[in-house]
Design brief:
Radius of gyration: 18 Å
Structural class: mainly alpha
Oligomer: single chain
Shape: elongated
Helix content: 55-70%
Number of helices: 7
Distance between the termini: 34 Å
């Protein structure tokens, strides 16, 4: 359960950061034809600030429902925001993908490695149908790594936007 909580805290931090990025880059949406609000969504708001919040909320959800890798690539591509290297050799990226996938198999597959986990991680040593090998060292390292990545995220947001 600690891993689930740990990933959730990082995910929340990333969403808060994404919300800040979207708010600061809001004018970008004025030239977009892809974002659509219904008339009822527009007329249910009392002012332009409410409409702005609705647009940001929709864009945030669009990003948040992607895989962690796709979220990070979208932030880099669409908003020029990157706090870790995103190449295939990046240990930070590999770690985030693995821990998010591990959280998913804990929540949805009782910790048993499935094909989705194998397809999305860079760890061919895992075998389909086995339990993910978890121990105290993995949990300790995960805590240290998530804290490190959270700090990098916050520092990058401060340097770029605050």
């Amino acid at each position: 359960m600690l891993i689930i909580y740990l990933v959730s805290v990082f995910e929340s931090l990333l969403q808060d950061g994404t919300n800040l990025i979207l708010d600061i880059n809001f004018k970008k949406f004025s030239t977009s034809d892809t974002m659509q609000l219904s008339y009822s969504e527009i007329f249910n708001e009392f002012d332009i600030e409410g409409i702005k919040d609705k647009v940001i909320e929709k864009e945030l959800l669009k990003i948040a429902y992607k895989s962690i890798k796709d979220q990070l690539f979208a932030l880099d591509k669409d908003y020029n925001f990157k706090f870790i290297e995103l190449d295939n050799n990046s240990s930070d990226l590999k770690f985030l993908i693995e821990i998010f996938q591990y959280r998913n198999i804990l929540l949805h597959n009782k910790g048993i490695i499935n094909q989705t986990f194998i397809d999305n991680t860079d760890f061919p040593k895992h075998t389909l149908g086995d339990y993910f090998p978890i121990n105290e060292d993995y949990i300790s390292e995960s805590i240290i790594q998530i804290k490190h990545l959270g700090d990098k995220l916050l520092l990058s947001l401060q340097e770029k936007y605050l």
